[in-house]
Amino acid sequence: MHIVINGWFVGQSTAGSGQYVHHLLDYLPRQTPTPRLSLVLPVRKTDDVAAWRARWPSVEMIAQPLIALPQNLAKLCWEQVTMPLLARQLAADVLWVPYWAAPLWQPVPVAVTVHDLIPRLLPAYRGGLAQRLYTGLVSWTARRSAAVMTVSHASARDIVEQLRVPGERVHVVYHGPNQEATVQVDAPMLAAIRQKYHLPERFFLYLGGFDVRKNISSTLHAYQRYLERGGDPVVKLVIAGQLPATDSAFTPAPQKIAAELNLLNQVQFCGWIDDMDKPALYALGAAYIFPSLYEGFGMMLLEAMQAGTPVVTSEECGVRSAEW
Predict the structure, then answer these.
(1) What sign does the dihedral 123-124-126-127 (CA atoms) show?
(2) d(CA 304, CA 206)
């Protein structure tokens, strides 16, 4: 079988869709029988082609120029024109789009991965007219696809209900953890990570994004109540992840909220965490706090559980995660 892959998110490791395709391309060539894989990369990533060839030597790399358009239009043209055209030219058996952007024209069978339906289900994520039109387009093209893959039964239910895709065409393929199961977290590693990020002796941990559905304000208010009701102040709150550049309703700045709650002496912001450091960071936490209002899967919950760390999460996120 010849699978042509839309490589738009290759190289974008800070995006969930980038991490998803990276990890799958690490494992797909190991399958037996091994499919023929052709990865189509936008030409803006050609400087990285040699590195990707070294990482995935059995995957055919095809560097394709982008049409000179504004970024959003260039992406749309890539998804709707370039990828289906190349899939036909390459005689693909399947065009796989590893994010929610199947083409309208489908000259070969299309498989699309829809991680979640956040732009349809959460008003804050619907955007302006252009974003809503795009969401409408990819909703329609998902219905026309031969197969829709998703990452949890909760997301599968949403896809059937919201996109009206027949249930027999929706396939749940769970995520694995981002870290290899063989990572050994020992005392020297824990000590090194504690020193690297200047971590307190005991702490609750939040690690994740800062858009409004992550509900970081509730984390800070809950921690304030913990202290007010006699909680041990020795147990600090560590907030990890790339902080928002600006404070807004969509990305509320946790530093500002912590200051308003007089928590700056109790809350530590340690910034971006390297992937290789995450298992030890989770293991050091007294508990992992994740009160998200919506997750298609909730990768961080799985990572914390893998590290043996207790998880405190919201009912909605916990219910959805239980539907893995």
Answers:
(1) positive
(2) 10
* Rounded-to-integer distance, Cα 6 and Cα 42, Å: 9
The CA-based angle 132-138-139, given to 5 degrees, is 85
Averaged in consecutive runs of 10 residues, what is the pLDDT profile of the chain (324 residues)? Answer: 96 84 90 90 75 92 91 95 97 97 98 95 92 96 97 94 96 77 81 97 96 95 97 97 92 96 97 91 97 87 90 71 48
Concatenated DSSP letters of 120-164: HH-GGGS-SHHHHHHHHHHHHHHHHSSEEEESSHHHHHHIIIII-
pLDDT of residue 180: 56
Residues 6 or more apart whose CB falls under 8 angstroms from that of 296 comprise: 115, 116, 117, 118, 150, 151, 152, 154, 155, 320
Note the pLDDT of residue 322: 47
Q: Which pTM does this prediction carry?
A: 0.83
How far separated are the first and last CA of the chain, in Å rounded? 28
The three-class DSSP label of residue 9 is: coil
Length of the chain: 324
